[in-house]
Specification:
By secondary structure, the protein is of the alpha+beta class. It contains three helices and ten strands; from the N terminus they run ββββαββββββαα. Bound molecules: S-adenosylmethionine (SAM) and zinc ion. The site of S-adenosylmethionine has 16 residues, from β2 and β7.
Length: 164
Amino acid sequence: MDHLYLKTSKINGTGLHTSKKIARGSRIGNIVGEVIIVKKWTPYLSKISPNWIGIGRYSWINTKNSPFKFINHSCEPNTYILGKRTFIALKPIQAGEELTMDYSFTEADKGWEISKCGCGSKQCRKKIGPITTLDLQTFKKNESLIPENFKRIFRVDYIKSTAS
Ligand SMILES: C[S@@+](CC[C@H](N)C(=O)[O-])C[C@H]1O[C@@H](n2cnc3c(N)ncnc32)[C@H](O)[C@@H]1O
Ligand SMILES: [Zn+2]
């Protein structure tokens, strides 16, 4: 992962960039960090958790000791997470480009949001929330990029919301 470096991002603050071209489908690296389990969310946790990447409804990996701590969200990302910890290139990524992921694909907490997305994509959803805030069309289009746990959470919530 020595080709990954930090630089001011056009999206937000500092972002994770690559100094070499990455081929579509190749493995970029694994997220290293402890697993955190929280059943009851509090406002305090919202403050300390921007570096957590979700792996289930109540579980996250704390990325504080990993370069992926700086990966920003994009509504048109160039990476996705395979399984729980492995970043894969979704498209060819050029040297100097920022790496991005779609945060909604790995977050289930209903209280979490980015109120004003700065990704700049034509497909920007503007307000970014958990997996359950995706519309059906966006979910279906991205199904192969969403970890199993989060697909399940989306489907259960969708069935509940359409049944009532
Ligand atoms: C894991 S950090 C990413 C690194 C961050 N840019 C930094 O400099 O520390 C996640 C935080 O970055 C910000 N962020 C990431 N992607 C964003 C986006 N597309 N639009 C607005 N803010 C974003 C949000 O504040 C989010 O809580
Ligand atoms: Zn966006």
